[in-house]
Amino acid sequence: MRSAIGFLSLLAFGFLAAGVLTVAGSGTATDFSFDGATGIGATGVHLGSLLIGMVLGIVLSALARVSWAELPRRFAGWLLAYERAFYRLALAGVFVGILLFY
What is the reported pTM? Predict the structure, then answer.
């Protein structure tokens, strides 16, 4: 629940920042039209770049929460825990290969 609230607060901050950039960049322009060819609105904010930046910020914040030092140990533990399942999967692959190529 805590990570979901953190994600939603980060998303809200991103939309708030986008709003601030739009208002700050608008200046005295009153025309809010959007040029689809260039992706730049009358305010001078490139909407595609703004969206890509927000998505990259969310991805980077999610990657920052991963404990990279602990990841190899957890992966090795997961492999050892499901060793029998991998053995059965390998045997099933061998038997299916024998049926197909015989």
Answer: 0.41
- The torsion defined by the Cα of 30, 34, 40 and 41, in degrees rounded to 10, comes to 20
CB 28 within 8 A of CB 43: no
Q: Enumerate helices (H) and strands (E) in the chain, giving the number of each.
A: 4, 0
| Cα 2–Cα 68–Cα 83 angle in degrees, nearest 5 | 100
Provide, for the chain, the percentages of residues in helix, strand and coil under a 3-state DSSP scheme, each rounded to the nearest 5: 70, 5, 25
Residue carrying structure tokens 């910020």: 57
Are the CB atoms for 62 and 10 separated by under 8 Å? no
Residue-wise pLDDT for 60-80, tens only, equals 888 888 888 898 999 999 999
